[in-house]
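Section 4.2 – Deliverable D4.2 (structural model, holo form)

The reporting period included a commitment to supply a predicted holo structure for the target in complex with S-adenosylmethionine. Inputs used:
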Amino acid sequence: MNPDFLNRIQSYIPNEMEAFLSSLERPMYRGLRINPKKWQDAQISFPKTPFSNDEYYVNEALGNHPYHLAGLFYLQEPSASSAVEILDVQPDDVVLDLCAAPGGKSTQIAAKLDTGFLVANEFDKKRAQILLSNMERMGVDSMMVLNNEPSQLVSKYAHCFDRILVDAPCSGEGMMKKHDAAMNHWSVEHIQFCAKRQKQILESAYQLLKGNGFMVYSTCTYAKEENEDVMQWFLDTYPDMELVDPNVSFGRPGFMKNTIRIFPMDKGEGHFVAKLHKKGGPVKRLPVQKSIAIDSITKTFFMDQLGFIPKYHDQQDDKIYVMDQSFIQTKGLHCLRQGIFAGERIKKRFEPAHAFYMNAKWIHVYKQKTNLSLDEVDAFMHGLEIEHPSQKGYIAVCVDGYPFGFGKSDGKHIKNKIPKGLRLLPNSHINRCCL
Ligand SMILES: C[S@@+](CC[C@H](N)C(=O)[O-])C[C@H]1O[C@@H](n2cnc3c(N)ncnc32)[C@H](O)[C@@H]1O
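Output (structure tokens):
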């Protein structure tokens, strides 16, 4: 292991070096965070983590568990949930997650919103698609997924956000284990490069935050240059920003008042979190756009499947999107998704989208749905058509009442509509463990 890295850690925690070194030998902590918007009566037998009320330590890979496929939980390193707990999102907040992929924190924020709205932005194109897929799986509806550089958001949405999360790209020291190849690329120069980039991102975040709004800055690195030093620079540059008490009992104080650090000895991997408040300044609203009228074929589809017509609509080419609240203007930005992608108008019919059947708000609303056995779930997740008597037409396929996709039934068989990219590989199977 790089001796310069270890010397720096020694200077941070001189009395705990032995415990730190042994933490590098063991595997990363794994966490399961339930999605309370879908899974209200979750009873989990695993131990809780100190970082979030909804989170548990797990010790096996559960990515192929049917409940995971249905968006009932999200898997992430446990202390990663600390930043959103500190952000203290309120149900009606307009929130921006500026560096959002793969979406652990965005989906955690979404679970805390009710009438609020979430803008999840990711700079990297491929990672933005993964973010979108996770938002869909978790059934988030009042949201948009953007793929932009943070500075591009400023001309459109300056002073519009009640809360902003800057979970910044960093040198990632907190996620490295002794034998990781990434550790070989560790350097002080890289830390300095990351610090510069973090400052640029924070400059945009400052302009996007409403007067009196709150911001959380977090990293998964120990490097002081990317943590307390960046915060000091931010306070010096913007005197109307102040650090405030994160008001949580996990972790330990950082090297600056009102900051939090998490070391592996604190039951999670390495993190830094700070909460900031903007003392005043302009307050604006996200610019809304007019709802688009929808045609009778689409209306009939909604009535058949939901028993009502969602209130707000948007249409791009033949694709129809719906939401419970007004759509936001996105002209000039690269918006991958806003609201729920309901489906497509194709000739004289409406072809639903996978996302339509994943909306957390509609779990108990879908009129056409059927429960599959675990063997059927496995077959369906491999893209197979299954023999399974059910209502005719488009139908949500469920595990224990929770939709994980849809198919088209002729009454006896269900034709598979699981998107190809979400299907299980031939040699993998659903996980049948009990939670
Ligand atoms: C720590 S990760 C975010 C993890 C995410 N918040 C989550 O909980 O799943 C930081 C993200 O910042 C993105 N990023 C990289 N360079 C960036 C830049 N210049 N501006 C904004 N984001 C950037 C990375 O692609 C990465 O997805």
